[in-house]
Amino acid sequence: ISDYQEMTIKIQKFLKEGRARLNKDDYIEAIESFNTVLEYNKNDAKAKELVRQALLKGKKQTSKSYQSGC
Q1: According to the model, what pLDDT value does residue 36 have?
Q2: What is the pLDDT, as a whole number, of residue 60?
Q3: Residues 6+ apart with CB under 8 A from 5
Q4: Which residues, including other chains, have CB under 8 Å from residue 10's CB and lie 6 or more apart?
Q5: Residues 38, 44 contacting (CB under 8 angstroms)
Q6: Considering the entire predicted model, what is its pTM?
Q7: CA 8, CA 28: separation in Å to the nearest integer?
Q8: Among 5, 11, 22, 31, which is least packed by CB within 10 angstroms?
């Protein structure tokens, strides 16, 4: 297995892990997974978009919690 193939496997693993965390509303952990992808490839468009989504969803969740008095 080449270094490139190994890196690609790791990137896919962290993207999958991050998506699962995002689906569980675990935004901080999701962002950490996506940031790990960006450490391997700083231009990964999927990871950048998923970080943006996690930040937006986290912001909405925080706003809802604040409004409900939590």
Answers
A1: 98
A2: 79
A3: none
A4: 40
A5: yes
A6: 0.84
A7: 23
A8: 5
